[in-house]
Amino acid sequence: MKEIRNGKWFGICKLCGEEKPLCNAHLLPDSMKRLIVDFKSPGATVQTVHMESPTSYSSQTLSSDKKILCASCDAYLGKFDKKFVELLARWADLPARSHQFWRREDVVFYRVQGSIPDLFLGLLASLLRFSFSDRHPGIQLGPDMEKLIADSLLAGRISDELSALVDLKVLGSHHALVAEGTDLSRVIAQSPFYGEVDGANLFVFETLGLTSIIKIGPSGWGKLFANVISPVQEWDQIRIIGIHFSGTNITRALDAAIEVRRAAFQLMDRNSSSPEK
Q: 10 Å Cβ neighbour count for 150?
């Protein structure tokens, strides 16, 4: 791979496998930023906060990688991004999410217009980009799983082979309003988290109060997730089980697993940056 000019690269596209000029491919759909920031306002920016430290910075865009996809493959995956972001926009403004007065032990469902394939394929398109990228070493699916996901995306449907190895559960939270009407649920994690829970490899996307958990591999969900109801297609709507934004045993277990994994990768980074003796 070589740089051709002005930060543009020429190399092998990781989706089509052809040697081409590569584009600046966003790992999450960049249009997602408009669901949290009104870019019509002067000086509007995305505010990014690091979880490992109190530092933050402003930017006009979400994270991207210039070394993974050609423009035509990135545009092709953009079809799945578009449907996913449209579904997220409907979710973000769902009136039912304002009804917070229910007990933790109650079973609550949200219904949002859209289809499970649009949600699942949109998430897989982003997960594949993260796996392609060297910028996120903690998110590696391996070449076999990358190919299965890529083939399904190219076919526009989840194949039977992939369906046997990949599953999705989704948890939705209510609006979490604080002083001056700020909605704490209206945030996006700029990358999925990886955690191993009950022997299952889980990749967790946090988007605007929607927690999407993708299980990769032949193992089952395990005891913790056995009774979590999967999203259900009801005509032109998806039925999603609700959780309190402040968290449950499930989210605490996920957080604990993620913290262990993050600490391990931090240690790896420190060791790799240490001078050789």
A: 21
CA distance 190 to 192: 7
Q: Which residues of 191-226 are buried (b: 16+ CB within 10 A; e: fewer)?
A: bbbbbebeebebbbbbbbbbbbbbbbeeeebeebbe
Strands 166-173 and 237-243: parallel
Q: pTM for this one?
A: 0.86
pLDDT by 10-residue block (mean), the chain, 277 residues: 82 96 94 77 61 56 90 98 97 86 75 97 98 93 98 97 97 75 77 90 91 95 88 97 68 63 53 45
Give residues with Cβ within 8 angstroms of 266, minimum separation 6.
52
Answer whether 133's CB lies under 8 Å from 171's CB.
Answer: no
Question: CA-to-CA distance for 120 and 127, rounded, in angstroms?
Answer: 10
Give the CB-side neighbour count of residue 246, counting CA atoms within 13 A: 5
Say how far residue 56 (Cα) sits from the centre of its chain: 20
d(CA 83, CA 115) in angstroms, rounded, equals 9
Cα distance between residue 268 and residue 277, in whole Å: 17
